[in-house]
């Protein structure tokens, strides 16, 4: 009855299609187990009945080349025995591939780490060095320099260097008791130039 219904309602093209798919079936990206199940299903749909040797030949022909090459060296009698050996070969190849990938990744990581490693000298400290002109020292700010000097400009145009502690105006002499032939204008003009942090600030300290 099934054969009659199949011949009546299923076209010949459909059967040809199923057989063609079975002939072209390969493992591809599938696992061995999934490939075997797909092959058995395709054989059932195409109503293919064949001997065990033919089925085993078909099965091996669709395997990946590296697996098929290993299986051909094995001894097997039945399709179930063949399937078991093929699964073992697949596991071994996957294990080797995984080990190679791990080793390659580790080597690549170490190589990149060595290339990117910055060579540093622990004895050298990174310091900000400040150089001030008066003391020619390193690491001092001009305003904190112990050898700070002030430049003084006199009336006659002479420039003298004095200690930073001499901030007071020199005392003025009282010459009111000295007679002069003619009015004399006494003028005290002292211009002090202070160097602080590389900035020249001019102070007019006093004028009489």
From TrEMBL:
Record domain Retrotransposon gag: where: 2-64
Region listing for Disordered, in residue ranges: 94-143
Lineage top rank: taxon: Eukaryota
Biased composition (Low complexity): 94-117
Pfam family, one: Retrotrans_gag
PANTHER family for the chain: RNA-DIRECTED DNA POLYMERASE, ZINC KNUCKLE (CCHC-TYPE) FAMILY PROTEIN
Protein name in the entry: Retrotransposon gag domain-containing protein
Source organism (scientific name): Mucuna pruriens
């Amino acid at each position: 009855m099934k054969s009659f219904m199949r011949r009546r309602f299923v076209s010949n093209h459909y059967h040809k299609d199923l057989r063609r798919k079975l002939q072209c079936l390969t493992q591809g990206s599938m696992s061995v187990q999934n490939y075997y199940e797909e092959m058995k299903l395709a054989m059932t749909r195409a109503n293919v009945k064949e001997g065990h040797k033919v089925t085993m030949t078909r099965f091996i022909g669709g395997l990946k080349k590296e697996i098929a090459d290993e299986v051909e060296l094995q001894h097997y009698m039945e399709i179930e025995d063949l399937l078991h050996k093929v699964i073992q070969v697949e596991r071994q190849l996957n294990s080797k591939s995984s080990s190679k990938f791990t080793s390659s990744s580790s080597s690549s990581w170490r190589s990149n780490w060595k290339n990117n490693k910055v060579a540093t000298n622990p004895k050298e400290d990174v310091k900000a060095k400040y150089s001030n002109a008066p003391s020619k020292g390193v690491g001092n700010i001009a305003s904190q320099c112990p050898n700070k000097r002030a430049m003084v400009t006199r009336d006659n145009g002479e420039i003298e260097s004095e200690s930073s502690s001499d901030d007071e105006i020199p005392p003025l002499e009282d010459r009111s008791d000295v007679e002069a032939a003619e009015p004399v204008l006494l003028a005290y003009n002292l211009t002090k130039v202070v160097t602080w942090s590389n900035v020249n600030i001019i102070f007019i300290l006093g004028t009489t």
